Amino acid sequence: MSPGPGTPPRTPLRFGYGTNGLTDLRLDDALALLADLGYDGVGLTLDHMHLDPLAADLPARTRRVARRLDTLGLGVTVETGARYVLDPRRKHGPSLLDPDPDDRVRRTGLLVRAVEVAAELGAHAVHCFSGTTPPGTDTDTAWKRLADSLDPVLDAAARAGVPLAVEPEPGHLLATLAGFHRLRGILGDPAPLGLTLDIGHCQCLEPLPPADCVRAAGPWLRHVQIEDMRRGVHEHLPFGEGEIDFPPVLEALAATGYQGLTVVELPRHSHAGPHHAATSLPFLRAAAGDPADHPGDPLATPRREPQP
């Protein structure tokens, strides 16, 4: 739909798909799939099966992935939500809030490494989250640990020119938009600090509807994740299986002028990752008023061919 007289043009939305929903595919195969389907980019989770951040040859691997992304014409956000990349026994452990300072340093080091990878890849942001508050830790102590742990990451982000986009995550210390603004205040509103807004999380627990959350978050948006969800239930769902009305959400997002990727986040659906990648993009384009270029089965009709 064309904007009316006097209405500023909307920023076209750029859609991506998260590799944490394609963990049964080799990274090269996942990137080729997304390019063939017509995605604009990828949310690349650093994990043992997809650009392992602990690999001894990480710099060489990163350069190769950068060339592959360029060849395929894919943008990228670096995501750091791998479940067991640092500790094979603790999901998302250690966190930025752990009582052991050495453990907190390990998580900070991973995030600094993610910033370095993001700079090499030309990523538009690095995503992270706070972690859950450890038992026996009071709230003020937890917020201080979070701020102190993020200081070196923000310094690295400033040097690299890559924003750090913190995600409010249900059940974590920083769970809501209000929590993000509390962190901003503690840190003194540093320029590299931005926000990852997960649209499903807005539906799950924010007091405002998702479209209003987008408008409220607009000035700080550096990364967006998207999926369907139900009120009060933190379960990432394929589009159409939850309660979100997506056209107003995407209209609000376009109106903010956000220029990064809007990445489909279905980490528990890797068993059917190619199917969900194929069906999600036409849904989002239709919801955004931008129908898919090719009707029919998107897996059978790739939009662009990889360059040799």
UniProtKB/TrEMBL annotation:
Annotated stretches, region: Disordered: 287-308
Pfam families: AP_endonuc_2 (PF01261)
Ranges where the Xylose isomerase-like TIM barrel domain occurs: 31-286
Chain intervals with Basic and acidic residues compositional bias: 291-308
Domain of life: Bacteria
InterPro entries (UniProt xref): IolE/XylAMocC-like (IPR050312), Xyl_isomerase-like_sf (IPR036237), Xyl_isomerase-like_TIM-brl (IPR013022)
Protein name: TIM barrel protein
Organism: Streptomyces tagetis
